[in-house]
Amino acid sequence: MTQRIAVIVGSLRKASWNRKLAQALAACAPSTLSFDRVDIGELPIYNQDLDDDHQPPQAWTDFRDKMKTFDGVLFVTPEYNRSVPGVIKNAIDVGSRPYGSSIWAKKPCAVVSASISAMGGFGANHHLRQCLVFLDMPVLQQPEAYIGGVDKLFDEKGEITREGTQQFISKLMADFAQWVSIHAPA
After folding, report:
1. CATH class of the region 3-183
2. pLDDT (tens digit, 9 = 90+) per residue, 12-69?
């Protein structure tokens, strides 16, 4: 059985390193997973008044409905000021409301952070994990994935040039496939 995974990338840049990394992660994943990138850049900023008045923007409704169809989520994020980019936090907020109707609950996930720095987005990774645990998402614990030097990771075709990194992400995706098979809601 193939399980559908939503890929949420925290960078909106056209030439995003994180988007390239998300593609590389999907390419080396076991065939038991299929991936669909979910764009979050056009989601209006969350305002609870719109939900309270039963007038959520269509983009929120479409996002919530689409996310309900996935078996798991792969978050791939850069680090902005030791945290996640605002677009990821906004997507989390939109999906977690209205209260009691969260689309995130019980959905298994993994977090991969990438940065040009040696720390690989450690702060963003852990800040995002904190939010996901609160949302009752089973977060893959090991291996933790902080990809440093991402600006030197890809060749001109977008393929990973470091053998050790390629082996690491292959193991990560194999472990994620197993995690999803154990934790995905029936």
Report:
1. alpha beta
2. 988 899 999 999 999 999 999 999 999 999 999 999 999 999 999 999 999 999 999 9
Widest Cα–Cα separation across the chain = 53
Q: How far is CA 112 from the centre of its chain?
A: 7
Q: What is the DSSP letter of 139?
A: B
| Residues in contact with 171: Cβ distance below 8 Å, sequence separation at least 6, in sequence order | 143
How far apart (Å, rounded) are the C-alpha atoms in residues 68 and 101?
11
Q: Which residues contact 110 (CB under 8 A, 6 or more apart)?
A: 72, 73, 74, 75, 139, 140, 145, 172, 176, 179
CB 121 within 8 A of CB 77: yes
pTM for the predicted model, two decimal places: 0.95
Q: How far, in Å, CA of 103 to CA of 121, rounded?
A: 26
Q: Which residues contact 77 (CB under 8 A, 6 or more apart)?
A: 9, 10, 11, 18, 84, 85, 88, 111, 112, 113, 114, 121, 124, 125, 128
Closest CA to 7 of 96, 89, 76: 76
Cβ(24)–Cβ(120) under 8 Å?
Answer: no
